[in-house]
Structure prediction request, 492 residues.
Amino acid sequence: MTDSKETPTASASEAPLKERLVSTEHKIKVGKRTLDYTATCGTLVLREDEAGKEGQRSADKPRAELFFIAYTLNAPKDGPPRPLTFSFNGGPGSSSVWLHLGILGPQRVATDEMGNAPPPPYALVDNECTLLTDSDLVFIDPIGTGHSRMAEGEKVAEFHDYQRDLDSVGEFIRLYLTRYGRWNAPKYLIGESYGTTRAAGLSLHLQKRHDIFLSGVMLVSLAIDLQTLSFDHGNELPYSLFLPTYAATAWYHQALVPDLQKKPLREVIAQAEAFALGDYSAALLQGSRLDAQAREHISGQVARYSGLKAEYVLRSDLRLGEFRYFKELLRHRGQTVGRLDTRFLGLDRDDAGEKPEDDAAMSNLIGAYASGINRVLRDTLKFDTDAPYVVHAPIWNKWSWKGFENRYVNIGDSLRRAMHANVHMRVYVASGYYDLATPHAAGDYTLAHLGLRDEQWKKIAVSYFEAGHMMYIHQPSRERLAGELRAFVSAA
Prediction:
């Protein structure tokens, strides 16, 4: 680090919300390259037009300050414009820390080859997989997460709404492009989990609201059709779409029958998918009309691919909900499996419950990432504040879905419309075989039902990884994912 400067903006004294930006200079060695880059972090104030008296327009009203961290390579000014990638995570209620310190940023949280974090106080290392090699990066913390806050007197719940979230993040993107003169850059979005919901919505919102057309969208752990993920009575889709991941999980933990256990993982998944989308789906659609003999046969096949007992499958009416599965698969060993990554194992007070006490995968990571982002902000980026950085706010159960009342949320049509309007926009999807938050088969089903024409369908690429929701914590997956993301943004 060679220089540090803090720059207040002109509007800082004009509103109770203040913009504060801190810039620092850094170097990192990636392979044989040395990257000289500028890091800028801080808050931009988001304003909203407010109607005045007698139809007159009053001054823009400050509504919130949105926190971001940007990394910009110090490249020659006369060269071609570098791609610019806006990144966010999901929840809803998550900050951008996961993609930032897991795969994209110049530093990452240290984990072993599998993805286990070391004991506290954890560690940060230079990230040899950073996307900064091929794209400038902007990490966005939605309002209520990170250091993003609303104005005094505003209700935070107003921003915890699907459309208002698009409005605020979309306005930030427009403002950033204007402030930093980046309208000429190839523009990309990358989102994870609910971040894919946001990214799919933004792909159309940015076109319609701000005339911003994207070069591409990267979707990590796809969640844009919530019917595929909702275990509701009468909705049979998740039972079929989760079964291939149940099979992968049972294979990983050596819980399948011997003839399946000795097969390669992808062959096991392929067989489970064929059954799940064929005989199993047909049986579920019959409901109570399914006769006893057929029910017995289907329960045996579900047991075969899930690693559970046929008797348990029958008692569950052939329908294995996610939380029951986390608890039941290894109940006899006194262990639970994780949700975000089923390779991870947890322990409960006893083995008699219906669901685990905690998600073992999240427990493995949350402390390391919270420590990591606080260290990066204070020690590396010199952003000093006593305010807490909110890694994960529990707001998903209070999230508003105005416009989707009385139906499942499906953002697929926004992505379709954006791709049909912008025939150059490409989409990359990364799915983990051990992800039981957003299973890969649910993502595949979603993509197959977008309604894209052939030419646009060819612009979607899907990759699968032998890891979970945050597949980048697994070293081989991180290295392959990094290479594919770099190739994706370099194509522009």
